[in-house]
Hints:
Shape: globular
Strand order of the largest sheet: 1-2-14-11-16-9-6-3
Largest sheet: 8 strands, mixed
Strand content: 15-25%
Amino acid sequence: MNESSSSSSRAMGTVDVDQAFIQEPEHRPSLSIIEGQGIPVIDLSPVTSNNPSLSSIDALVKEIGSACKEWGFFQVTNHGVPLSLRRNLLEASKSFFAQSFQDKKKVSRDETSASGYYDTEHTKNVRDWKEVFDFLAKEPTLFPLTSDEHDDRILHWTNKNPQHPPHFRDILKEYIKEMEKLSYKLLELIALSLGLESKRFEEFFGDQTSFVRLNYYPPCPYPHLALGVGPHKDSGALTILDQDDVGGLQVKRKTHDQEWINVEPIPHAYIINLADMIQVWSNGAYESVEHRVIVNSEKERFSIPYFLFPAHDIEVKPLKELIHEHNPPKYRPYKSGKFLLKRFEGNFQKHREENLQIHHFKIA
């Protein structure tokens, strides 16, 4: 990780146990791995190829609906994103993180913008064993100055631009265009699976606050105590994840046993997980799923998630088409940007109380 303090910074390179990384006993990874049998793998060719049949699209919508309801997590193939672009971004990511800490720190994230390098992120008050670089999808990205619901002041976030590797910014911008296309296809399929018009979600994303993240997980000398990312649910609409072949992503099974199971990398596939806003918009018909990242004692790991978020001023609430006498609203409305800012604040430093979660908005 970094060289900012004698204990926490050098923890990444030694066997000294830094308490900031240590998970509570109930969250520590099990030594026995449960393979992810049954996690849906969905072929998107009906919406990425020319002249698809209506029957193939109908079948795809049913597959998506089943995966969303039963898992909240699935993998997609034939998604249309060029493999060459994905390889270019992965190589650029490796090149960026291979730099010295001093060079990476030149583009550090700070509390005035979510863009840039960071290596002390917390998930639910425990430090993650990782380094990240975040890049905004829209520039500038409009975002609330504070999480105070009565404060209307707005920030204009801009991206940090590393000098190394060459063409880093161009590769990221090209990749974001592909992620936007894929995310809108997925939103259309999810909308249709809920019985909504296909473009129902589009209005929320005009001035979106989405971003792409580059994750680097160094080898960890105590993988039985720490996690790359602690147990959490994503706070946006959905997440599209590219990962290398090392693996480490685990999802909590929604069955009664609540076991953590491995999500095995499938060559060229993307992992899709529903996030909190889909849960609210669907009034709980679909749920975001808890997941985490375990670390490896020998191998480094790279992953690239794209987090899809709506505009900061969108009021997130159950969609009126899905509300009726026998299915009243299950969530109180909240503003997207204020909620996300609260979550960001919890990522920057350790708090005594639980970070803001979607269940805090659930109507009893």
